[in-house]
């Protein structure tokens, strides 16, 4: 076990030093060293207006996506059909509630 650990560490170090040796530092631009955050440079525009409609739709999508991930194992287990049916009804009612409430509407 110790031999495998030492051998893998040695291989990692050799590969690291080979990459540093062959890396061409002259072609790296200054923009390549800076972070890139959602389509704008963070040092220039850190306080952009935030769309609450986008946030609410993203949150609804995230919640329903997690619910679908929870439901997925019950699709293949036919002994818990009632659990799958209940989750699907709740998911449908939640989507209907969000739609009737107007949370899914997008205004320009």
Automatic annotation (TrEMBL):
<keyword id="KW-0249">Electron transport</keyword>
<keyword id="KW-0520">NAD</keyword>
<comment type="similarity">
    <text>Belongs to the complex I subunit 3 family.</text>
</comment>
<keyword id="KW-0830">Ubiquinone</keyword>
<protein>
    <recommendedName>
        <fullName>NADH-ubiquinone oxidoreductase chain 3</fullName>
        <ecNumber>7.1.1.2</ecNumber>
    </recommendedName>
</protein>
<dbReference type="GO" id="GO:0031966">
    <property type="term" value="C:mitochondrial membrane"/>
</dbReference>
<dbReference type="InterPro" id="IPR038430">
    <property type="entry name" value="NDAH_ubi_oxred_su3_sf"/>
</dbReference>
<dbReference type="GO" id="GO:0030964">
    <property type="term" value="C:NADH dehydrogenase complex"/>
</dbReference>
<keyword id="KW-0679">Respiratory chain</keyword>
<dbReference type="Pfam" id="PF00507">
    <property type="entry name" value="Oxidored_q4"/>
</dbReference>
<comment type="function">
    <text>Core subunit of the mitochondrial membrane respiratory chain NADH dehydrogenase (Complex I) which catalyzes electron transfer from NADH through the respiratory chain, using ubiquinone as an electron acceptor. Essential for the catalytic activity of complex I.</text>
</comment>
<feature type="transmembrane region" description="Helical">
    <location>
        <begin position="82"/>
        <end position="100"/>
    </location>
</feature>
<keyword id="KW-0496">Mitochondrion</keyword>
<keyword id="KW-1278">Translocase</keyword>
<keyword id="KW-1133">Transmembrane helix</keyword>
<feature type="transmembrane region" description="Helical">
    <location>
        <begin position="6"/>
        <end position="23"/>
    </location>
</feature>
<dbReference type="InterPro" id="IPR000440">
    <property type="entry name" value="NADH_UbQ/plastoQ_OxRdtase_su3"/>
</dbReference>
<keyword id="KW-0813">Transport</keyword>
<keyword id="KW-0812">Transmembrane</keyword>
<dbReference type="GO" id="GO:0008137">
    <property type="term" value="F:NADH dehydrogenase (ubiquinone) activity"/>
</dbReference>
<keyword id="KW-0472">Membrane</keyword>
<feature type="transmembrane region" description="Helical">
    <location>
        <begin position="54"/>
        <end position="76"/>
    </location>
</feature>
């Amino acid at each position: 076990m110790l031999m495998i650990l030492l051998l893998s560490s040695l291989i990692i170090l050799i590969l690291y030093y080979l990459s540093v040796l062959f890396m061409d530092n002259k072609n790296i631009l200054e923009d390549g060293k800076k972070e890139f955050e959602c389509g704008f440079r963070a040092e220039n525009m850190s306080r952009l207006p935030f769309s609450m409609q986008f946030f609410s739709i993203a949150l609804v999508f995230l919640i329903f996506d997690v619910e679908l991930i929870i439901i997925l194992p019950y699709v293949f287990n036919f002994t818990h059909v009632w659990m799958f049916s209940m989750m699907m009804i709740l998911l449908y009612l939640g989507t209907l509630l969000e739609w009737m409430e107007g949370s899914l509407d997008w205004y320009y």
